[in-house]
Amino acid sequence: MKGLADILLLGDERLYQNCTPLTPKDSTLITKMTRDLHNALVEFRGKYQTGRAIAAPQLGYMKRLVYMFADDRSTIFINPEIIERSDETMELWDDCMSLPNLLVKLQRHRQIRLRFYDESWQRQEWVLTDDLSELLQHEIDHLDGVLCTMRAIDARAFRWKPTPNLSLE
After folding, report:
1. Assigned architecture for domain 4-160
2. Gap between the Cα atoms of 7 and 13, Å rounded
3. What DSSP assignment string belongs to 21-49?
4. Closest Cα to residue 3, out of 29, 40, 51?
5. pLDDT value, residue 118
C-alpha cells in the first residue's frame, strides 16, 4: 500500500504530465488508487496537520482522479473538469503535499462549476465556492501537470512553512 513516503515531490517529472481519463473498466485500479490516496492523505495529516484532498498523479498514478477526505467523509472525483469559472477571483496562500513546507501566493476563481463521475459512474455537476472552489482547482491542476508554483503571482510569492512541532510531552 502506498502512503506518505510515496508522495511525489517538487521536481519529479511525473508531476508535470497530463493524466489520462479513467473508464468503468478501471474499477479495480480506482479501488486501489482510492485506498492508497486515502492512506497517503491520512499519513500526511498526521505529520503536517493539514490536507483535505490529493490527486492521483501525486502518488504516480497518471490518471484523472481526485480523492477528497473532509469532515470524515470521502468523495471521489473521476475525470473531473471545470466547465465554468467565475470572473471574481481571490488571492490566497496555497500549499501542496508535493511541496509540504512551501506556501505559494496565487489567484483562484471564487466559484467554479465542476463536472465529474462519482464512484458509481453517475455523472455529477457541482457548483463550488471559496475554499472548495480553490481546493478543486488546485487538484485539477495536478491532473493537467500544473503545480501551484507555476501560478505564483510574482517572483516574491513564496513563503516557507515549517513542519509543525509534534512534541509528545
Report:
1. Alpha-Beta Complex (3.90)
2. 13
3. PP-GGGHHHHHHHHHHHHHHHHHHHHHHS
4. 40
5. 97
What residues does 117 pair with on adjacent strands? 78, 123
d(CA 72, CA 140): 22
Name residue 95's amino acid. D
CB neighbourhood size of 38 (10 A): 17
Active site residue 139: yes
Q: 3-class DSSP state for residue 10?
A: coil
- 13: cell is 517529472
Looking at this protein, which amino acid is placed at residue 12?
D
Which of the following is catalytic: 119, 125, 134, 139?
139
> How is 100-154 classified by DSSP, letter by letter?
EEEEEEEEEESEEEEEEE-TT--EEEEEEEHHHHHHHHHHHHHHTT--GGGG-SS
Q: One-letter amino acid identity for 169?
A: E
55-92 confidence digits (pLDDT tens): 999 999 999 999 999 888 999 999 999 999 999 999 99
Domain definitions of the chain by residue range: 4-160
CA distance 37 to 75: 11
Res 162: pLDDT: 80
pTM of the complete model: 0.94
What are residue 98's phi and psi, to 5 degrees? -85, -5
C-alpha cell at 76: 471521489
